[in-house]
């Protein structure tokens, strides 16, 4: 008797059955193993992505009550740009074509929102230039009646208040509709992208809205499912409170320009000088903050384009995989 036969005779009967079943079971296909490996890698990427967002959101807290709304908006735009940039590699190779395809329209809406915010910032820059031109005319040695008349005209063209000039159209909103049920790794990444995009759009509408109705700030449920949900909701709550309680720099300079326009119609020279100094101070502060926010919005636009290209590439790769199966 061979040694192998002796060894087999010592084994219990059920073991022979297990060996036979294992030998008869078909081996897993290489395609199935590749899909499982991809899912594991994608899940790991999504977990790292979630952790990074949670850390950055906590870095925004707490928002000081006296902080500048424009500066807070610029910091949030920076966070959104990073989120978009890191979403692209997190989606690479995941293969959930349905989740990616469903997000393509949201990506276009975000690009449109960036364009609308950029147009709003350019409008604010033009109004700032008209205010500075009025200050230049008042500071001219020949400022007397002609200079005051031209300064008055510049302020009228600028629009000193919402009543003097029609408000701009509302900025586009990006409603956040949180999906339910079991989500793939790609879908989890895109939930975070949509949530932060919605928060940034709501903040922009509140700070730059120009008299728009109260903005609804997004909230995320399922703190256990999304590690970033708790700091996200905290940031959303504090931004909402900041927008409701603080007068933005845009509103403050409008009020200062209105006081200057009223002083031009009076005879109080000391009051006119004080009003002009107030407008000058506020325009200088606004200049730096508008430039900072404009750079941040441009960063969001570039990152959104990059994510859209990655999504299209992922979508086409998933279609190619199906063709090969």
Automatic annotation (TrEMBL):
- What ranges does the record give for the region Disordered, renumbered to this chain? 12-37, 149-178
Say which domain of life the source belongs to: Eukaryota
Q: Locate the compositionally biased regions of type Low complexity.
A: 20-30, 152-164
Name of the molecule in the record: Uncharacterized protein
Q: Whose protein is this, by species?
A: Digitaria exilis
